[in-house]
């Protein structure tokens, strides 16, 4: 039986992934951890306060629950990381390398670590960005994700660590709020529409970015972790895609449901970050290796969010 540790369980992805893992493996087999207090939706199973940079505490939890699989989700995202580059580097990088070392030392068997479209940069082909391509990220978050991918690949090749990773597009969910990302406008806009308030977007109306509904992101993560090891040909991180849209296009979709909804545009420093990223992603390697297929497009996601929010 798998005993799973989720590090960063109170975050945007962690909170939804933990709930899904508990449905699959049983609440007692999925240990949620975070630096901050737990959330209501995590109250079904074990929760421990844990700072991922405190290696002794991480070891203690790994031993206490006889953990076999770790989802290490902690990171400072793109916009926040620009405000504290040194801390972002320390958190994003040291935490990963510490966890990779624990995997190498045999504390657990399999590791999941998220990468991002932020690994791409101004010289990356913007349309249908291939799995293997120019990567010249110019944000500290992107630099840390690209370096992290190389560490993962290195630990797999050199130490046979079973580490798996996805380059997430912007993740959109309604159950939890994101913090500090460049794609987060696409979450906020639904909350404003539902609250019958006007929305001011921090990106220009034609800024196209790859995005994914949280249901698809959670399913992709679990499908990757469930795939037989011999199907995993990429140990840095897989390109992953579902949809791409602009702020204007998401507005046009929401306005079909809320005809009085109004949006204006006031681009800030996040515009330059968005402009440096890819606009659409070729995820054919993930499709071929472990059968990835998204279920949600912009219209289906909008319908689902506005019904349930
Ligand atoms: C961000 O905007 O920083 C994240 C990401 C694309 O990784 N959502």
UniProtKB/TrEMBL annotation:
InterPro entries referenced in this protein's UniProt entry, alphabetically = Epimerase_deHydtase (IPR001509), NAD(P)-bd_dom_sf (IPR036291), NAD(P)_epim/dehydratase (IPR051225)
Residue ranges of the TM segments: none
> Which stretches make up the NAD-dependent epimerase/dehydratase domain?
4-233
Pfam families linked: Epimerase
SUPFAM superfamilies under this entry?
NAD(P)-binding Rossmann-fold domains
Q: Which family does it belong to?
A: Belongs to the NAD(P)-dependent epimerase/dehydratase family.
Please give the name of this protein.
Answer: NAD-dependent epimerase/dehydratase family protein
Organism this protein belongs to: Reichenbachiella agarivorans
């Amino acid at each position: 039986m798998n005993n799973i540790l989720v590090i960063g369980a109170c975050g945007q992805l962690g909170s939804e992934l933990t709930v899904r893992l508990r449905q699959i493996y049983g609440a007692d087999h999925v240990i949620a951890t975070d630096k901050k207090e737990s959330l209501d939706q995590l109250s079904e199973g074990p929760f421990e306060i844990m700072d991922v940079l405190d290696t002794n505490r991480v070891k203690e939890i790994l031993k206490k629950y006889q953990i076999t699989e770790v989802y290490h989700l902690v990171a400072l995202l793109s916009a926040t990381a620009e405000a504290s580059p040194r801390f972002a580097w320390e958190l994003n990088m040291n935490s990963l390398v510490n966890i990779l070392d624990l995997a190498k030392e045999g504390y657990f068997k399999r590791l999941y670590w998220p990468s991002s479209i932020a690994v791409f940069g101004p010289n990356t082909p913007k349309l249908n960005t291939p799995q293997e391509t120019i990567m010249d990220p110019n944000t500290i978050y992107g630099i840390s994700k690209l370096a992290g991918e190389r560490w993962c690949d290195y630990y797999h090749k050199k130490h046979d660590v079973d580490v798996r990773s996805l380059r997430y597009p912007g993740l959109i969910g309604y159950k939890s709020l994101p913090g500090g990302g460049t794609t987060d406008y696409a979450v906020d806009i639904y909350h404003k529409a539902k609250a019958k308030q006007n929305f001011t977007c921090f990106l220009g109306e034609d800024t196209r970015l790859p995005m994914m509904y949280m249901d698809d992101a959670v399913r992709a993560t679990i499908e990757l972790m469930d795939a037989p090891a011999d199907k995993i040909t990429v140990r840095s991180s897989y390109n992953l895609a579902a949809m791409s849209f602009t702020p204007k296009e998401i507005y046009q979709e929401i306005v079909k449901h809320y005809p009085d909804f109004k949006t204006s545009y006031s681009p800030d420093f996040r515009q330059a970050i968005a402009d440096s990223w890819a606009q659409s992603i070729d995820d054919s390697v993930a499709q071929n290796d472990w059968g990835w297929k998204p279920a949600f497009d912009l219209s289906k996601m909008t319908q689902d969010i506005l019904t349930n929010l």
